[in-house]
Structure formats: structure tokens, C-alpha cells
Design a protein that fits this description.
- With about 130 residues, the protein is an alpha+beta fold.
- The protein has 2 domains: about 50 residues, no CATH class; about 70 residues, no CATH class.
- Helix content is about 25%, strand content about 20%.
- The chain contains 4 helices and 6 strands; from the N terminus they run ββαααββββα.
- It has a 4-stranded antiparallel beta sheet, sandwiched between helices.
- Strand 3 and strand 4 form a beta hairpin.
- Helix 2 packs across helix 3.
Length: about 130
């Protein structure tokens, strides 16, 4: 187990880290961007939340339509990181709709293609008449 205090605001402040354990403390976006180990980087982003990472790292909007928004983070250590922001079609009990960020492969170029990919379909196969 390693324990290291942060020395600047852009570093991670944490109390402990070991493989398969939680990062505890304040996590900064720069921590993800500076992490050389891709597996650790993926775990950090997963724990932090893809939505938080994309918003706080100022990901670029690639395309937007009625299905959602396609975002790209270029300087991701594992190649470009792409995700589609979609709204759940079923309202919550209070009438609001939950937002989801779905990670998609780097070759995706539209929200239609990205949403279809999450269902293992191509963009032409994903044209539902009714959503439930």
C-alpha cells in the first residue's frame, strides 16, 4: 500500500491506493491525464464517473441531434475517448429524465451510430418505431 500527500493543487490528494482498492480523497482531472498506466487510468475514470470526467476535462462536442450528444476527449492516454450523452426515454417518478454517458469506440462519428453501437447494431439497424 502506498500513501502519498499531494504537493500541488493539480495532483491527487489521497489516503491510500492499492490494486483493486478505492482511491480515497480529492481527485483532479489532471490525475487522469497524467496517469501512465492505462488500466489505472480507466479505473480512475470509472470511479470518478465518465460524465464528470468529460465535463470537467472540457471534452469537445463532435455532433448533436435528437438522440443525444457525441463528445470526444482527444488527449486521452489510450487514444481518443468518445461517449454519447443520452436521455433515458422513461421518466423517473418525479417526471425528470436521467442522463447517461455511454462510452463508444473511437471510430464512431455520430450519435445515431454511437447509440446503435451500444446495442451491437449498425446505425441503419437502429431505427425503433417506439421506445419503451
Amino acid at each position: 500500500m502506498n500513501s502519498t500527500p499531494a504537493t500541488t493543487e493539480t495532483e491527487l490528494t489521497f489516503t491510500r491506493f492499492a490494486p483493486n482498492e478505492h482511491w480515497l480523497g480529492e481527485i483532479k482531472v489532471r490525475t487522469f491525464e497524467n496517469e501512465q498506466n492505462i488500466e489505472i487510468q480507466r479505473i480512475l475514470i470509472e470511479r470518478y464517473g465518465l460524465d464528470n470526467f468529460l465535463v470537467r476535462s472540457i471534452a469537445r462536442k463532435i455532433q448533436e441531434d435528437d438522440r443525444g450528444v457525441l463528445y470526444q476527449k482527444d488527449d486521452h492516454g489510450d487514444g481518443p475517448l468518445l461517449a454519447v450523452k443520452v436521455l433515458n426515454s422513461t421518466p423517473k417518478p418525479d417526471g425528470s429524465f436521467k442522463t447517461y454517458f455511454l462510452r463508444v469506440p473511437p471510430h464512431i462519428r455520430s450519435t445515431k451510430e454511437g447509440v446503435a453501437r451500444t446495442f451491437n447494431l449498425n446505425k441503419d439497424e437502429n431505427a425503433p418505431d417506439v421506445e419503451s
